[in-house]
Design brief:
This protein is of the alpha+beta class. It folds into two domains: 56-125 and 151-209, no CATH class; 210-274, no CATH class. 53% of the residues lie in helices and 12% in strands. It has a three-stranded mixed β-sheet with strand order 1-2-3. It is flat and about 85 Å long.
Length: 274
């Protein structure tokens, strides 16, 4: 076959592929626009996402724990090391994990609402479906649900803790190590053990732990989502907090009568004042 014929064939093939890709892009863009404008599931999940705010937390901790003897290393229970970190809140360890627990509880609620929306039956008006002469309503619905799944908030609220216990002989000649990797469930077990201890139940940390996402929501709703000092709301661009009227550090309890909604500025100004 002459070189010119081969060149022509390659050119025509390239042109056909380019046209095909252009048609595909046009169809996809048309579907995307229709979903953004008329998508029942897509727009409800967008609104749902706006209602949920998750805190950003440290997800990986390395705990280096030296011991005094080889025998102590052999007998070491790594749970005790993790509980020690909780008890003393080393580098904000317990505060960080409590926020992770709160995130996971909130995410479970978010997931339930997400699935409820996605289970809802919806009939699309014919004019909302692009290419409605060839595209069926069920096909459009399937495409929209697939597109909507991509905007679902992802579950990234885990934690790993590497416990590295070690012993070094007096002259440093011999080195011994034991390493343990904790996932969320393991850390949660240690957290529960710590919470159930008598010492914890009399501490300020215990009172703070009673501030659940559900209780925070109830207080915000009770106070009409407004700061109880200056009257500002989220519509004014402020961040709202649920504050202990009598601070936990001064014996205040985590109960509705001792809780109030404050904006961030008023909360910081109040600090630990009574």
């Amino acid at each position: 076959m002459p070189t010119t014929d081969k060149t022509l064939i390659l050119f025509l093939l390239f042109l056909a592929i380019t046209v095909a890709l252009g048609i595909v892009c046009f169809i996809v863009n048309k579907l995307e626009k229709a979903i953004e404008e008329h998508g029942f599931y897509y727009n409800r999940i967008l609104k749902l996402n706006e209602n949920y705010h998750f805190s950003h937390n440290r997800s990986h901790w390395i705990v280096n724990h030296p011991v005094k003897s080889k025998k102590a290393l052999e007998k070491l229970n790594p749970n005790d090391v993790v509980i020690y970190y909780f008890e003393n809140n080393i580098n904000g360890f317990s505060d960080n994990f409590e926020k992770i627990v709160e995130n996971r509880l909130l995410y479970a609620k978010y997931t339930a609402e997400y699935e409820e929306i996605m289970k809802t039956d919806h009939v699309y008006p014919i004019e909302a479906i692009p290419f409605n002469t060839i595209l069926k309503a069920n096909d459009f619905c399937k495409y929209e649900k697939k597109r909507t799944s991509k905007i679902k908030i992802k579950d990234s609220f885990g934690i790993t803790v590497d416990v590295n216990a070690s012993y070094s002989s007096p002259k440093g000649k011999n080195q011994y190590r034991r390493c343990f990797k904790y996932r969320y469930e393991n850390v949660l077990y240690c957290y529960t053990q710590w919470k159930n201890s008598a010492r914890f139940k009399t501490s300020a940390a215990y009172e703070r732990s009673l501030m659940t996402a559900s209780l925070r929501y109830d207080i915000l709703k009770r106070d009409n989502y407004r700061c109880q000092i200056c009257g500002a709301s989220a519509n004014d661009g402020v961040k709202l907090h649920v504050d202990h009227i009598i601070p936990v550090s001064k014996g205040g309890k985590t109960e509705p009568s001792n809780l109030q909604t404050l904006c961030e500025r008023c909360n910081l100004g109040k600090s630990n004042k009574m």
